[in-house]
Amino acid sequence: MERVNENNTPANSSTHRTRSSALLTDKYELTMLEAAILDGTVNRECTFEVFTRRLPNERRYGVIAGTARVLRAVHDFVFTDQQLDQIDFLRDETLEYLRNFRFSGQIDGYREGELYFPHSPVLTVRGTFGECVILETVILSVLNMDSAVASAAARMVTAAGDRPIIDMGARRTHEYAAVTAARAAYLAGFVATSNMEAAQRYGIPASGTAAHAWTLLHTRPDGTPDELAAFKAQVAALGTGTTLLVDTYDITQGVENAVAAAGTELGAVRIDSGDLGVLTRRVRRQLDSLGAQNTKIVVSSDMDEFSIAALRSEPVDSFGVGTSVVTGSGAPTAGLVYKLVEVDGVPVAKRSRGKASLGGAKDAARFSRPSGTAVEEVTYPMGTDIPQAEGLNVTKLTIPMVRDGELVDGLPTLEESREHCAKQLVSLPWEGLALTRDEPALQVRNIVRNTTA
User: What are phi and psi of 337, to 5 degrees?
Assistant: First the structure.
């Protein structure tokens, strides 16, 4: 597979690999591989599909994210000699298979930023059983985490309306999960991140000024707080456009000190505690009375989509969100699964109670009214004609991503996927954007393969 970075940008194929994702797998995938090698089924042509049977917490839609990272992980899924030397439960023939492993199959799926619903075929992996089965864990670990964050972030963006949201969640999760969470949140519509690694790796705007520690640092030797000195020093370093954190002590005095330090052209004040609705109204009146009518108000303090929605009528200019976005706001996984749906061209499906799947390789399309409002999603046998519906526009959702192990040219960038997500959110029926629990905003109808002669 051609080398790619995590923004879907092809790199020079001669570049040496810098990491391996091959051990980001579960043991049972390797034991299945060995059994398939022994019984001769390892090279049967198979199709695996990523989908969810239900949306978490009865949400109305999900946002697919992490596709570019999946493609990078598949590219990097190559076993090193050192890794193989440490695997002591496989036979020599299995180890030799892994030593020569390179994914050479096909991958199709929904582009990043696309909405999905129960039984949407968000990713389809085709190839031999051996090369597809061992990719399950790494594919799901990326898509489940990133899609959970993006889905939560999209709900927050909708709740905020036209007011921007900044990701501040780096201190509330694993250090590298914070980086990928920032990417997923940005894809879903957040405008910036506090995390410098995410900013550097993905080109996301970085945002941040000072914490309460900065204000507390400026305490006089006799123990008396000197908030004004802290604000003056911050303005001297960062300019009057900075954001001053005004709730370390008394907020009313904090706002007065902020304007005294920066003047009426102060960029913003941030409130990180208390009854935010009451406080923002009070602070807005105080700022206006001091002549700082253009100074904005930023709020943080354990925000989620519900608290953001509750502040829509308040004089809040932007939000900072931490814990809830990096943890999927109560749904830390998207609930995506990776299931075998076709063997040698024959559809196969689980019939387990509560865990049934739909057999066959599928493409997907979405029907919309001429106004742009989506009304239905359909799946149909892969490679057949796109279904049509009278009076409705149809858009194919599945796109080719990998062909014969090589990345397809022209896949969307992070910025393009971000724009796509914004457009798809406004295509939902208005009730589909509600934060209340209910049925999915769109139903997915499966058109089965015609098996008659």
Answer: -125, 165
In this structure, what DSSP letter does residue 373 have? -
436, 59 contact by CB (below 8 A): no
For 31-43, how does the pLDDT look when each residue is reduced to its tens digit (9 = 90+)? 999 999 999 999 9
Phi-psi region of 14 (alpha: psi -120 to 50; beta: other; left: phi over 0): alpha
Task: Please answer whether residues 418 and 409 qualify as being in contact, where contact means their C-beta atoms are separated by less than 8 angstroms.
Answer: no
Distances (CA, A) of 360 to 224, 290, 316, 394: 72, 67, 50, 22
Beta pairing partners, 144: none
pLDDT for the residue numbered 19: 82
Alpha-helical segments (H) within 61-135: 67-75, 81-85, 92-99, 129-133
Structure tokens at 219: 């305490």
pTM: 0.94
* All residues at 6 or more sequence positions from 243 whose CB lies less than 8 Å from its CB, including other chains: 209, 210, 267, 268, 269, 270, 298
DSSP, res 206: B
* H runs (alpha helix) in 173-275: 175-187, 196-202, 212-217, 227-238, 251-262
